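Record pair follows.
FIRST:
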Amino acid sequence: MFKAIGTFGRYLALMGRVFSRPERMRMYFREFIAEVEKLGVNSSGIVILISLFIGAVITVQIKYNIQSAWMPQWVVGYTTREILLLEFSSSIMCLILSGKVGSNIASEIGTMRVTQQIDALEIMGVNSASYLILPKIAALMFFIPVLVTFSIFFGIIGAYMTCWFVGIMTATELESGLLHDFNPYFVLCSYIKSLFFAYIIASVSAFYGYTVEGGSLDVGKASTNSVVSCSVLILFADLVLTNMLSA
C-alpha cells in the first residue's frame, strides 16, 4: 500500500516537471511532429487490420448466436454498431495500443536512462522530463481520435465484408441496422474516452521508462510493468467514464 502511494507521488512529481513551461517551442514542436508519425501514423496499420476482422467477427457472432426469427432484421447491424462505438473502437483498441505504443515509449526512455543520455540532458540544463515526455503525450492525444475514427470506419467495413464475401445476410439488412436509432453522442463518448486513455498510455509508460534503475534487463521489466499498469488503469477509467458519460 505504502509502495503504491509512493509510486503515485513520484508520478505526480514527474508530471509536474513534464507540464512546466517549455524552453523552446520550436524544438518541442519538431519533436511533436516526429512523435505523431512514430506513435500515431505507424500504428494505423494494426488498428485498421484488427478493426476489419473484429467488425466481421462481431457481425458473424451476432448473426449466428443472437438473432432469431423473433427479432427484426436490423438487430445485427444495430448491435455491431453499438459495440464498435461504445467499447471496441475506444477502450479495446486503446488496450491493444498500450501494448504496442506503451512498451515502445517505456523501452525508449528507459534505454536513454540506463545509457545516461537523460543525465547528459540534465547537465546541459534541459528539462529532460518535459522534453522527452510532453511531445509524446501531446502527439498521442492529438492522433488518437484519428485512430478511433479509422477503427469505427474499418470495423463497419469488416461488417460489410461478411455480407459481400460470406453471404450471411444482405448489405441492405445490415445497413438498416447500422442506421437504426443512431445517436451521434456515442461517437463523442468514444472520442472523450480515447483522450483519457491516450494520456494514460503516454504518461504511465513514460513514467516507468524515466524512473527505471539498473541495466537492460530492468528496461524490459519496466516495459512489461508499463503495459500491465496501463491496461489496468484503462479498464478502471473505462468503468468510471462510462458511468459519468451515460448518466
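SECOND:
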Amino acid sequence: MQPTISFTPTGARVVDLSVKCRAEGIRLDHYLVSAFSGFSRSVIQKVISTSAVRVNDSPAKASYKVRAGDLIHIELPEPTHDLPVPEDIPLDVIYEDEFLAVVNKPSDMVVHPAKGHWSGTLVNALQFHFSQLSHVNGDYRPGIVHRLDRDTSGVILVAKEEQAHRELSAQFEHRKIFKEYTAITAGVLERDSDYIEGRITRHAHDRVKMMVTDDEDDGKDACSYYEVVERFKGFTLVRINPRTGRTHQIRVHLASVGCPVLADKVYGGRDCLRLSDLVPELDTEADQVLMPRQALHASRLRFHHPHRHEMIETEAPLPPEFQRTLAALRQYRR
C-alpha cells in the first residue's frame, strides 16, 4: 500500500500508510519522525498523545513497535518549517536518464532536510539540478529512494518519477539491489572473508547509537558479508556487502567484532586519523589530517532498471581522503 494523502476541513494533512518489512521493530514515534522529516520527535509525540495517530484503527502509544503490514493513520499539523528550496550545490552525477539518476554523494552532506539541517542537503542540490523529482516520500524528500549517513560518501539512487520510485523501493524492500561499500577499519579482521550476523536495535542509553543484541524480541535481523582487500599493522581495507539495510548496520557490525570504521567517533571513539598517529616521531609542522571523517564509502550499486528492463551497475571512485590514507598506510604500516 502506497501512502495516501487527504485533508480535513480545517486543513490538517491526513496520511494513511503501511509499514514495510525493513521498518519492523522500530518505535512508532521514531518511525513517524523518519517518515515525516519536517516534524521533530517532540511534535510527533504530541500528535500521538492527542490520539491523532491510529495503528490498525486503534490508538497507539509512542513506544509501540511497528510491525510489517501495520496500517497507520495520522493527522499532521501544519509543517513547522518551510519546504526545501533549490540550491546551486555541485553534484557528481554518475548516471542519469528520464526516470532516475545515480549521484556520488560527498561526505559531510545530509541527504534530506530535517531538524538542524534545513539547507545544504542533497535534496536542495537535487532540486536545483533536476527539473523533475518523485514525491512518493513527501515534499521534504523529493527523489530520495534510500539514504546514506551524513559522513558516508558514495553512490545514492534518485527517482525522478513516481512509478520508478515505487519499483526501486520494492527492490530495496525485497533485497534485490546489490550494494558494496569500501571501509578502512581501526583493527585487523582475522578472516579473509566472512559474514557478521547480529540483530540490531537502538542503544539502551544513547539515542544516537545502535547496537547488536541477542534479544530476539528486541531488534531486527541484520547480515553483512565482507572481504579483506588489504591488511596493515592495526588497520584493514575491506569491502562489505550488506544483505539487509539497517540503520548504521556496517558501522555497528564492524564495531561489534572489534574493528570499528576508522575515524567513526560514534562507534570508534575518534573522529579523524592524522599522519602523526602512524608516525609518532613526526615533526609537528609536517603533520596533517589524513582521514577527517568516518572511512566508509558506498562504492557500487547494482539494480534492475524499472523501465529499461536491464541491469544498471554504477561505481563511485574512492575519494581523495581515502587515497591519501591508504598511501600513508602502505608507506608506514606494511
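COMMENT: The radius of gyration is 21 Å.
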